[in-house]
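On to my pick:
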Amino acid sequence: IAYAESIDTVPVNMSEVKPSLMMSVPRLYEKIYARVLENAVSSGGLKKQIFFWAKAVGDRWASEKLAGREPGGLLCLQYGLANKLVFSKLRERTGGNIRYFISGGAPLSPEIAKFFYSAGLVILEGYGLTETSPVISANNLLHYRLGSVGKPIAGVEVKIAKDGEILTRGPHVMRGYYNNEQATREAISEDGWFYTGDIGVLEDGYLRITDRKKDIIVTAGGKNIAPQPIENMLKTNKYVSQAVMIGDKRKFPIVLIVPDWDQLEKWAARSQIVWTSRAELMAMPTIQAKMEKEVKEQLKGLASYEMPKKVKLIEQDFSIERGELTPTLKVKRRVIDKTYKAQIDSKYAALYYPWVVAPNPDFNPNNPNAPAELTLPPSGFLCGIYARSDIERGVWKPPANEVVRSALRFERLVNTGEQEVLNPLGINCLRSFAGRGNRVWGARTTSSDPEWKYVNIRRYFLYLEHSIDRGTQWAVFEPNGERLWANVRDTVSSFLYNEWVSGALLGEKPETAFFVKCDRSTMTQNDLDNGRLICLIGVAAIKPAEFVIFRIGQKTADARS
């Protein structure tokens, strides 16, 4: 028996030990799969084409074998060639003696399991708990079904409860928890059935795990979402290292993504993005748009309520040391929810909080439906302030330090941390000053009324301008010419495309939702002589869908000091 030094040294350790059997949690197989794909892509040219041809052939071959059919004819010949050119080399890297791998502790992506199977590296998934000594079911070389954890072993009973929970009974089940009779009664029924806490189904005798019962997400709308299959789908994407779905008792699900930094940084370098830290790179709108696009493409086919509506990037891997993962690398969803509460809340934050408490002009002490006070959203109460300010001062001048007239108080006061969540750019501030009352401070607040152009759209334009400005600052390193102009057009267009996909821009197709113009016609000769890049951008964010045009300017490498 040999133990790997770490998850990163496993490839070297396998070549040293040349194992015949190997056990691990799915995280290892995910890393191996990602590394194999990366090596194939980076090799380029003919090697890349041969690998992906072999992968496609192996996928068809595996489908036949797993369906109980023997591949024949052309497919058999193609697989023989794919095995010689690609798969035999993969087996050599495992030491050359592997009979099979064993996986447990968490679900393994069927896509990854099928790839290993096609390469002649079978991964047998099993299932059990410490309380069940510890095996309940397992695949074997004679009885194997992809995506399942096999059939129950001899002497073990398994059934599915009405709510989908897996129950098991037999000599493998513990007698109880030491000195904890209450916990024992909750875990084991009077007739001996142990409640595993996992959700699953039995299909032709094979057990398939769908999720942990306590991990099932129930949205505010009552929709049930099993997060683990979705997370496993995401982890097969080369830009994703780890993924955790959040959304229990919330309006919609979101996903926390730890990027595969090697892959993402290579993409950023190819895209001529300049950064000094991963935190800076992660905050760039171009990077956010890239990861959102990857998530949406990876999860095509999900029901709309299952699709994460927002993506939050996390810089560091989740770890056992911080209590975010179990020793078998399963996610502790509640811990992550608590640890990253501020980041998660920022994805759900309504931008028109806090509400204002004001006197009810229709107050009637004899009518319970006409209370003395009303709690009003700023989208209604504050519109008057902004409308008057627009008339008196001009649209671009904010009603800074404006007293909220007629307001009794805010429904709740906002502390500094909450202010950052609600207004990360500091442009939508409602504050209570000691001795000075409740005041509006900053620029526009958003509105729940999409037809209110000034209030709702102004804030969005500030966001667009800020995002595009930050996302194109790398222009300072490039000469002001056709190549730079094309890159800027691509960068801004990609960002606006994602805005359109998310529903922020109107128009039935991208061409009617936005345009980006950055060429000789958008710059004067003086601009060119002084190294100034000017980009003309039009977006359709107001009903009826009409382009509102603004300009973004950047210094380039040709700028005069």
Q: What stands out?
A: Residues 386-391, 393-401, 421-429, 441-456 have pLDDT under 50 and may be disordered. The first strand starts at residue 21 and ends at 24. The first helix runs from residue 10 to 17. The radius of gyration is 29 Å.
